[in-house]
Each structure stands twice: as structure tokens, then as C-alpha cells.
Design brief:
InterPro entries: ARFGAP/RecO, DNA_rep/recomb_RecO_N, NA-bd_OB-fold, RecO. Keywords: DNA damage, DNA recombination, DNA repair. This is DNA repair protein RecO. This protein has 237 residues and is of the alpha+beta class. It has 7 helices and 7 strands, in the order βββαββαααββααα. The strands form 2 sheets. A 5-stranded mixed beta barrel has the order 1-2-3-5-4. The protein starts with a strand and ends with a helix.
């Protein structure tokens, strides 16, 4: 039996009494597990999206679907599961993380970043929308696609293909105007305490969300469930 620390990314039904649970773990990276019937019946109500937990499982050497024994929360996150705005951000993060981390192995810096971000989302009240974007833009650096903030200058635009900023040029494709590029730079460089001062409305947040999702799609060759993301962002943007 193995014991790891993990973050619950997604759960889906497997049978009437079992679930498939996708988890990003500190010790082994991304794992998929199938729950035994007893866990489904007794523990389902304690298995929350992005719950930070101690996980006991039996490793399957013949398959990448391991047998879950038990999940036990190790950090209390009461605010996340009673606030509709935070719950919808969790749904968005779970959808995104489950896709972009599928091939991610052990990465303790990434795990710590995820853990600290989930704890901060639980505790904050004033900067939820901006923090959602702050999290997504900085996440890129932990999986090898850091945005090149050193290339930014006033009135530059953001080139999504290499994550750098350039002077506007009609002959060169780019994804943003200079105002969006400036906010991307701020999200990637400002101290956490200052993100609530970045002036963003609903439309601006949706544009920035589209940019970062396209950035991940291009660099990781993945397709997001745009319909699900659209429903989620309409609630909290």
C-alpha cells in the first residue's frame, strides 16, 4: 500500500458503487484511481473538488488505474464549498488542471503552488476574480511554459506562440492589444497583495481567460471543454 498527499482534480462515475478519481500527488505526479464500493458509500460526501488529502492506495503495476483505499482531508477549506463564486472557480481549475497535468510527473514546486493557491482562494474575499487569472497565468511557469515578462514594454502586444511581448506589427500575428498585454504582464509580475488593484471588468476577465486557455492549448496540444468553461465563467466573471 502507498500513502501520498494529493489534490483531487476530477471524479466521475464508474459504476453504481464506484468512482474514477483523478489526483495530482506530491510524490508521484498525476494518478488515476478507482474507488472500492465501501469508499463510495461511506466517503463520497467528504471527497470534494481540489480537496487536499492524504491518500492510501494500492499501486497497479499492470495498469495506470490504481485501487484507492481511503481519502482523508488534511487541510480544512470551509469557505470553498459554501461560496458559489469560489465553487465555480474550483470547477474551472479542476477542468483545466485535469487536462494540463495528465502527463505531469513528480513536481514538488508545482504541488506546493497548487496547495498554497487553493488555501489562498479559501481565505480571500476581495480579489477572487483577479486571483483566478493570477493563478492561471503563473501556473504556466511551473509546467515549463513561463511567460517572458522581461520582454514587455509599454504599448507592446503579447505573442501567444512563444509567450513574449513585441512591438505591434501588422505583419506579425499576435493575440492581444497593448492594454491586454499590459495586464498580462501585471498578472505575471505584481505582488499578490496588489492584484485587487488591477482594474478588470467582466469583459476584460473573459478576454484574459480566453488568452491563457489558448496559450495552454497551443503549447500542450489539448482541447478544453469550452462549453463547460463558458458556463462556469458566466457565473463568476
Amino acid at each position: 500500500m502507498e500513502i501520498v498527499q494529493g489534490i483531487i482534480l476530477k471524479t466521475s462515475p464508474y459504476s453504481e458503487t464506484q468512482k474514477i478519481i483523478r489526483i495530482y500527488t506530491k510524490e508521484k505526479g498525476y494518478l488515476s484511481m478507482i474507488s472500492p464500493s465501501v469508499v463510495f458509500k461511506r466517503k463520497t460526501k467528504t471527497v470534494h473538488l481540489l480537496q487536499i488529502s492524504e491518500i492510501e492506495f494500492f499501486e497497479n503495476e499492470k495498469s495506470d488505474l490504481h485501487k484507492l483505499r481511503q481519502i482523508s482531508p488534511i487541510i480544512n477549506l470551509p469557505e470553498l464549498y459554501f461560496d458559489i463564486f469560489k465553487m465555480n472557480i474550483l470547477l474551472l481549475w479542476g477542468e483545466i488542471l485535469n487536462l494540463i497535468l495528465k502527463n505531469e510527473g513528480k513536481n514538488e514546486e508545482l504541488f506546493d503552488y497548487l496547495t498554497h493557491s487553493i488555501e489562498y482562494l479559501n481565505s480571500t474575499h476581495n480579489d477572487i476574480g483577479n486571483f483566478n487569472l493570477y493563478f492561471l497565468y503563473r501556473l504556466a511557469g511551473f509546467i515549463g511554459f513561463r511567460i517572458n515578462t522581461s520582454s514587455w514594454q509599454e504599448n507592446y502586444v503579447f505573442n501567444i506562440n512563444n509567450g513574449s511581448f513585441y512591438p505591434s506589427d501588422p505583419a506579425t500575428p499576435y493575440i492581444s492589444g497593448p492594454n491586454t498585454a499590459k495586464i498580462i504582464y501585471q498578472l505575471c509580475t505584481c505582488p499578490l497583495a496588489e492584484i485587487k488593484a488591477i482594474p478588470l471588468n467582466r469583459q476584460s476577465r473573459n478576454i484574459l481567460l480566453d488568452v491563457i486557455l489558448l496559450f495552454y492549448s497551443i503549447h500542450l496540444n489539448i482541447n478544453f471543454n469550452i462549453k463547460s468553461i463558458q458556463v462556469i465563467r458566466e457565473v463568476f466573471a
